[in-house]
Amino acid sequence: MLPATYQEFKNKIARVVPEDRLVTNPLKILAYGTDASFYRLLPKIIVQAHNESEVVSVLQEAAALQLPVTFRAGGTSLAGQAITDSILVVCSHNWKQYQVLDQKGERVRFQPGIVGTKANIILKPYGRKIGPDPASIGSALIGGIAANNASGMCCGNRQDTYRTIADIRIVLQDGTILDTSDPYSRKAFAKNRPDLLQEIIDLKNTINSDEVLKERIIRKYKIKNTTGYSINALVDFEDPIDIIKHLMIGSEGTLAFISDITYQTVVDIKYKSCAMLIFNTIEDACRVVPLLKESFVAAVELLDRDSIRSVETHPMAPAYFKTLPESACVLLVECQTEKEADLAVNQQKVRDAIVEIPTSHPFEFVRSDKDIKQYAFNWEARKGLLPTVGGLRKTGTTCIIEDVAVPVENLAAACIGMKAIFKKYGYHDATLFGHAMAGNLHMVFSQDFSEASEVKRYADMMDELADLIADKFEGSLKAEHGTGRNMAPFVLQEWGEAAYNIMMRIKQIFDPNNLLNPGVIINHDPKIHLENLKPLPASNEIVDKCMECGFCESSCVAEGLTLSPRQRIVVGREITRLQETGEDPQRLEQFKKDAQYTVDETCATDGLCGLACPVGIDTGLYVKDLRKQLASDKEKKIADKFADHMGATTAGMRVALNIVGGVQSIIGDKIMGGIAGGLRKLSGDAIPQWNPYTPKGGQKIKQDIVNAGQERKVVYFASCINRGMGKDKGYDKKDLNLVQLTEKLLTKAGFTIIYPKNINSHCCGMPFSSKGLVEEGNKLSDNLEADLMTASENGKWPIVYDMSSCYYTSLHHFKSDILKVYDPIQFMLEFVMPQLQVKHKQAIATVFPVCSAKKIGMVDNLVKLSGMCAEEVKLIETNCCGFAGDRGFTFPELNAHGQRHLKEQIPSSCTEGYSTNRPCEIGMSEYSEINFKSIFYLIDEVTA
Q: Which domain holds residue 878?
């Protein structure tokens, strides 16, 4: 039950925001209300706002009832600035609009829900990008990047949001809107809020009259600094509206809501190279940093020995990483130039600069365009350090990151001092890494908050750290991660009373009733950083290392429909906690009930989250494990019968699909859809969802060998899906079923085709294992492997699959390492296309890389294969299509959600699209309104 005041708020705001976007369900409150920090507060209500007018209404109704409001974008913030126990307004979905404002892409306006990498994809054709480049750019949203003034590897404090903002549109606490790009809005604001503008002028005058304070502000912002408000705006600008514009950057939602922001973009330097420089000591590494001038290096990243240890087992890591001494330190140095010839010049300047401080190992620069994998590893090793180091922590402990900056000349002393503090307080797993050229250091360590003594240890360490950085080195206690809750008690210590009073006046001017994200940045409780600590109980060893960073969310097809991978893990941990404590049986049972749909049934288990997670956590495997635990004996017995009679199962599928297809051809799509939808509704959704691209039945394979007598031979595993499913309404009448077409292509390429024994009864096992029926899936996989071994003459002949997902399943389940198993993309590229002649390329080919193709690194090969068949290749950017095997039939809302941005990506000239997975093609055809089919059809067409 909502408290009465919050119920009143909900009733009022429901006139503006639909009920389904006003979240009060306890499971979703927990899931949506969790961010990447080590704090937890549970909102009373979550409002999923979709536009500015809804935000205005929320602020006005909340103000009338004196209820605090906190804004959330991606929730990747680390300092507790995106959590609340009041009203949480989530502004991520439906905040994806953008506008490039000039032909050269020098200015671009973004709404707050755009992912940082998406912003750079938008700007790539112009050769530009946004200035900020945080390690979380693949998951952090523009709103959070601006609100926290996040910087990153190469941007330093020259290209962060504060210095690259062109304009901003904000909503103040009372609902007043200011758009600094609009002269009329500026004029109206000056007319309606002269009091606020005068307050800003008075603040500026206060600083100007205090030379000591003014000098301190200027000096402290020569290094990275996000502690407190951006009071440098009061020094850097004269116009009060320009001052307001810059005060919003780094304000963490405590002064206003950012509706959109216009960036002055920066050049995306074309030629890039990097090298890992290994030094014997951290002192040597820090001595080198001032010698590496910004004129010839773009970034210098410091990684201490413990940081390197966290990545030394990576396949791309040099072998000598494991033998480095404990005192070793690495500098990752990046050179960027517009002219290719200048790259080598700058690399030599690096060598010359450090000649008197030699490295312990020889180093070479690797280029982003030529040494792609090694270059990517070097930066992956640095960008993924926070979650990677966090993944090594003891289960049940929290991963904590602190972020400081000192003048570069104090970098070595600061490193030594911090390491001494870690040793003193027993933080033996603490690592140091960061942006050395900016004097910016991150330290990551694990912390157990389950005992009072451990909390005190953390508190004492933080006090001593603040003394070292703020007092001894006059540095920044927060350089780029925002003040939040965990550094709010130390703002006064770092800045001193005069500056802190300015900050309190800023808060009072914009938020006089302290309703916008209260407790963040300005907080008078000296112990607030020790309160509301997040529990992280062991839940399942597959996901126990998750630190809830949120890197996975932008890869999840269900995010925004039900839960993301991070949120599934959060829910699982809470269920475990409630089971262990027994504190609230009713809440536990409700969580279990709600989790069936939100955690289990709408998870595509595609595993793309594992690619995005620096620790490699595949939440799909976690959900499959949950399904295994929940599978009943009855379900297992039924599955076992199906597995033992796959031939009959596939035959039954063909009969059923032919009946449905025959009815469809007689009565048409509209009537068929109405009847099928009605039957599904009457059955309580037990009958699968029909869609217009549901195929007719396939054909049984009737011979074991095709095109006998050829020198080249191939074993063809035709998947049970493609044996059971034939063509749909989008295919031409002349088109063959995929199995027949594959035979045609392989024959044309000069292969004898061998089918494994009992081909019509085989299955890779995926339809079973994906539902948690592991034993049944393994049995099918083992049977298939045995017959493929025989058919291939113990690995003599290659084996081609016609679906990427089946190939991926076998790749990870087969026990033998002598079978030469090929994904359809790779086999066509390496063995078939060289034997065929492309006679008439298509103008453009639209292709979709399915999840399994992405997981095995086959996207580039798909583009290459498509490029052989078309002058231009359009790659669909959708993560997972959401069909997820059979979920497109049983939970069609997942497919609809996954394809919501599909149609806008299809070029107007395209009438067909291509992929390598039949179920995905069915769903994509429905939502794109063009026909998707196997890329084999494209190959056949251009080589006919």
A: 838-943
